[in-house]
Fold:
Amino acid sequence: MDDLDRQLLNRLQSDFPLTSAPYQLLGEELGLNEAEVLERIGRLKEQGIIRRIGASFNSNGLGYVSSLIALKVPEEQLATVASVVNSYPGVTHNYQRNHAYNLWFTLIAPSSAELMNTLKEIQTKIGDLPYLNLPARRVFKIKAQFSF
Amino acid sequence: MQTDQDIAIVRVLQGDIPLVARPFLEIANQLGISEADLLQKISEMHNQGVIRRFGAILRHRQAGITANAMVVWRVPAEDIERVGTIMAQSPAVTHCYERPTGPDWPYNLYTMIHGRSTEECEEVVQKLAQLTNIKECQLLYGIKEYKKTSMQYFK
Structure:
């Protein structure tokens, strides 16, 4: 990554130009032509640094509900339980963390009832492990952007 | 409520837009609408907060930001607004939420902190503790990433 890549990454994460030729506009700002911008972005994608370019939706705004779930999983069952949890498309993040509650995942569903059903279904499959259901009461910040 | 067309737009934009000079034209053609109408619709969704952010979504681990700490804080209920507001201002904090407590779980404020090392995360936590005078917290580091993806709505 050179300095221009870093500038491009910073710029691409916020205020992406919602215009007909966005990469031309970004190029003008950074002193690159459109083809060079496209080539650099292509490389950052190949390197796995850019996952995608698109929209992050507010799940509530689309009528969905979400929660954060913590599970206490016996160490030797962790891989199995994690793969059961991962098999649900509403699970978008799933991490092992250093705590007695050692598996933490986010769950998004079209309604509270469906969220609870999914949670029950997971619990049935994994043998009713101790858990916390922690839906956000209030959001103070969501800004998953990183400066380079 | 969303129209069928809104839903079709969400389905495309939640993925990766094509890496071409005129990506919105390509998407508009695919959806059978004009590029201008598509751009107008995206701006509306953005202004309404339905689209929280439009742009590049990174794999921050690949970009050298390898440590992620979920820090859980025990904050007196009447103090949560003040503390949440202060913590949210820190650039190192990417997410800050109030969540309910449980019988064996007294923590009610959550901050996600990303850094280049665990030391960097710990420095941020110390600073947040000083700024807010909230001392009771735990750092839960991500030891293993089992899944990290974007939600596929309306699938």
User: Anything to note?
Assistant: Chain B touches chain A through 74 residues (CB under 8 Å). Strands of chain B lie at 51-58, 67-73, 93-98, 109-115, 137-148. Chain B has two domains: 4-48, 67-141. The two ends of chain B are 17 Å apart (CA to CA).
